[in-house]
Amino acid sequence: MIDIRISNCNKNYGSLRVLKDINLEIERGEFIVLLGPSGCGKSTLLHIVAGLDRLSSGAIEIGGRDVTDVEPKDRDIAMVFQSYALYPTMSVRSNMEFGLRMRGKPMAEIRPLVEDKARMLHIDHLLDRRPSQLSGGQRQRVAIGRALVRDPKVFLFDEPLSNLDAKLRASMRTEIKKLHQSLGTTAIYVTHDQLEAMTLATRMVVMKAGEIQQVGKPEEVYHRPVNLFVADFLGNPGMNFMKGRLRLEGGRVSADVGAATIPLDGYAFDTSPTDGQAVMVGLRPESVQPSTGGEPFALTLKPTLIEHTGSDNLVVLAMGSEEIVGKFPSDMLPKLGEPVAVGFDLSRLSVFDAQTERRI
Ligand SMILES: Nc1ncnc2c1ncn2[C@@H]1O[C@H](COP(=O)(O)OP(=O)(O)OP(=O)(O)O)[C@@H](O)[C@H]1O
Ligand SMILES: [Mg+2]
């Protein structure tokens, strides 16, 4: 059942095309994460679903109803902003009650609802404080609580955790995931944070300059990016790219990347490869590991730099005139300049046409 349908949406500010023909169907209960670089139009798309911004052309449906010309307050959505947007002079309780009071719900019903959601978010002991007397994390909980009590059809989140420190962010992320698992409300969530996107999303939408690049399950987008942009945008450290040319010989395909010839026998091509085709061969650092001797493809490479992250060692390896990064276990510490055998997990390869930058 489709809960949100975004059809042929365009948004222009003067001659600036901020959203270009966006089409997206969101099923009931999905948690959709919008991801993309700053300025790509994530907030604009969210505001358009909320009704805070007008479309230049196109239509929005929520719950089977065309809401393109419907006021935000009548769209049955609740939005959580990065800046919390709490009323500073009101107590936490009043902040959480406010939306329901405005809708004329009786106080006898509002009270238990607010207290229940406050308990759920561990802010029940803070109900009589003002926002200025709370930490950033507590304020964000209040902002989420205010959205929860409304029991809307759709939650919209615009970078709700970006003002929090890394640790708090991680724990709030887990809580949002739990909330979604228990409530099952459809949500659209904007973030810059890849870990947030990967862990929260039932489907991810990667955008660039007002256009959708790829929509899919997080693991699908991560492992099978449709183009160089998506491949490069996801992952930290980023995917390794090896520039080369395809070779078709005796019914077999390989990629000559200068320092090595990578066999592509097991690679599932989306389009038929041609001999001499200029390509970028992509492999994520975690697919470049110390050799166990058992891999079908291994190279002996010299480490030029090692970064300890605590959980693993990022090892920069010279490969011809280029470098690639491998993610080694923390107890595998190669020596700088001393060649090591490195295994490549070729089942995780992504190959892109160098000109079109599309996955082939
Ligand atoms: N009111 C406005 N008038 C003119 N241009 C605008 C307006 N609002 C946004 N823009 C432009 O639209 C583009 C998309 O902005 P938007 O806020 O949607 O980006 P975003 O993806 O949310 O970025 P960020 O990650 O930095 O929050 C940007 O180039 C921005 O400068
Ligand atoms: Mg934004």
Descriptive account of the structure:
By secondary structure, the chain is of the alpha+beta class. The chain has 2 domains: 2-233, Rossmann fold (3-Layer(aba) Sandwich), CATH 3.40.50; 240-353, OB fold (Dihydrolipoamide Acetyltransferase, E2P) (Beta Barrel). It is 24% helix and 35% strand. The protein contains 8 helices and 20 strands. It has helices spanning 42-50, 92-102, 107-120, 136-149, 166-183, 194-200, 218-223, 228-233, and strands at 2-13, 16-27, 31-35, 57-62, 65-66, 77-80, 154-158, 186-191, 203-208, 211-216, 240-249, 252-256, 261-263, 278-283, 288-290, 298-308, 312-319, 322-329, 340-344, 350-353. Strands 6-7-8-3-9-10 form a 6-stranded mixed sheet, with helices on both faces. It has a 5-stranded antiparallel sheet with strand order 13-12-11-14-20, with no helix packed on it. Helix 2 packs across helix 3, helix 2 (92-102) runs parallel beside helix 4 and helix 3 (107-120) crosses helix 4 (136-149). The longest helix has 18 residues, at 166-183. The protein is elongated, with a radius of gyration of 24 Å. The two termini are 33 Å apart. The structure holds adenosine-5'-triphosphate and magnesium ion (MG). The site of adenosine-5'-triphosphate has 12 residues, from strand 2 and helix 1. Adenosine-5'-triphosphate is lined by residues 13, 16, 18, 36, 38-44, 192.
